[in-house]
Amino acid sequence: MVITLSHLKKYYRVHEKEAGFMGSIRSLFVRKYQTVRAVDDLSFEIAEGELVGFIGPNGAGKTTTLKCLSGLLYPTSGFVSVLGFTPFERKNAYLKQIALVMGQKNQLWWDLPAQETFLLNKEIYEIENEKYKQTLHELVELLDVESLLKVQVRKLSLGERMKMELIAALIHSPKVLFLDEPTIGLDVVMQKKMRDFVRTYNELKKSTILLTSHYMEDVRQLARRVIIIDHGKILYDGKLDNLVKKFAKHKVLSIVLDEYVTPDKLKTVGELVEYNFPKAVIRVPRSASNVAAAQLLQKFPVDDLNIEEPDIEDIIRDVFTSPKK
Amino acid sequence: MKGYLQIIKGTIEEYATYRLSFILWRVRIVVQLLIVYFMWWAIFAEHQELFGYTQASILTYILLSAFVRPFVMGTRTQEVGELIRSGDLSNFLVRPVSFLKFCASRDIADKLLNVIFAVVEIVILFFLLRPPVFFQTDMVILLLAGIALIMGMIQFFYFSLILSYLGFWTPDVWAPRFLSFVLAEFFTGVLFPLDILPIPLFTLSQSLPFYYFVYFPLKVYLGKLSVMAITQGFIIGLVWLVALWMLASVVWNRGLRAYAAEGK
């Protein structure tokens, strides 16, 4: 196993500030502290070459977990091992094999062209000249940024900068890559390019990648395995396909009608989600989907019918909003 | 090692990117020097001798301290507090790079630039103001002064770092830094030679680390100290150096445990 996480806990103590000016004054003298359980008893394992999507709402503990894995944070308790190292010891031999890319942080030298940072990383990671040239060439090709190498980083667009961040982070060909929200703030086209890149990189280099994202599309496109966490605990760990089977209690029937039917009649089949003649979308319990489909075909002037799985985003929203079991 | 050279190179390139701000910064330093210089010039206008100094010797002292100051107190470590607060420190922690050496490399770049420009400026000022300057020719004393200077530099480096490391616990390091620098400025002897202070204050200053930043190396250079005073200065200075170094490493290690890598 490349990554092993066992009963990881990370608690923060934060002080509560009361609202307003008087509250600020009061908190100068008396402080109330509150314990935030950012990560609460998390366990999972990731094998070499896996590309795992790590998802959850804001504040679920995704980033905290990545920080524990990359050695930035000391865990409150629990066992963490990556490539056989204990991350927070931050041994150089470990750091040389990993990379952490944070969508909202940059390591690039802001006032200088990106290639200055690449050169710096070349020296820091002690990469040989030939290897450096080859890797840089590969990455520049993949991301199509040849013309931007000499442009001051601050003059680059967000998307261009993100590409450069990736190059800086990958120039030492890390075995393990932690990607924290790599597509945040990017437009749809750039998001797709980013995704394509991550997929190709994973296939090409066989590196292990753990990726967090708010965008379901990222995870759907990239990861076969997902880990869903909320409030620092794992809700689901497994294949994306199984997630649907496990959590989707409904199926969705999309039909196209030949003639107009009143909505009330359609409601007898199931929950009418959308009706825009001639199209209608009806949600039915999973187990009843075949019966409902047959019923539709027999009793209604149906021209076309599709049985679909609900959208992953909907399922996940249900998972997060459903009351705790 | 080459990585740190690359940091020095990059830091200098950064300065070169913002020429105007760099030039203005140099202007500020020259104006600062002129203010202190003319203040003392005015004070001595009607006196032959004050506090055991002649006008010539005090002006020499002021000019020299202006030269030594950027050597010792030119630093980039004030950025460290912000790196911690913003969470950008993470970028260093996930790379196989020593943060301490990174800071030292940046400071070396800063000092290099500072010194090159300071030399040019001071040469110009010498020609304009024509103060009687004392050139030390004794090689042993020059060597000692050099060592004292390096000692002061390292002391100041750790002192400044410790103040910035406070950022691990408090989101704003500006206030403690400012306060400490006002205090340090007074006791380093860049505004006036410390031995014009009343005896109790002067004795107190000798037990503070600031004394060894600028005043001590300067006094060694001027050859005004007895062998006894030089020895004592090196011993106390060295004790401070070790103390600051140890404190810096303790604070750093504790800080890392408290570090929350904020701002994502």
From TrEMBL, chain A:
Q: PROSITE patterns per the record?
A: ABC_TRANSPORTER_1, ABC_TRANSPORTER_2
CDD domains, sorted: ABC_NatA_like
Any single Pfam family the record assigns to this protein: ABC_tran
Extract the GO molecular function terms from the UniProt entry.
ATP binding; ATP hydrolysis activity
Instruction: Give the top-rank taxon of the lineage listed in the UniProt record for this protein.
Output: Bacteria
Could you tell me which residue ranges the ABC transporter domain spans?
A: 23-256
- The protein's name is ABC transporter
Q: Enumerate the UniProt keywords alphabetically.
A: ATP-binding, Nucleotide-binding, Transport
Signal peptide annotation = none
UniProtKB/TrEMBL annotation, chain B:
The residue ranges crossing the membrane are: 20-44, 50-68, 112-129, 141-166, 178-201, 221-247
Q: What is this protein called?
A: ABC transporter permease
Give the source species. Candidatus Gottesmanbacteria bacterium RIFCSPLOWO2_01_FULL_49_10
Keywords, sorted A to Z = Membrane, Transmembrane, Transmembrane helix
Give yes or no: UniProt keyword Transmembrane helix.
yes
Question: InterPro entries per the record?
Answer: ABC-2_transporter-like
List the signal peptide residues: none
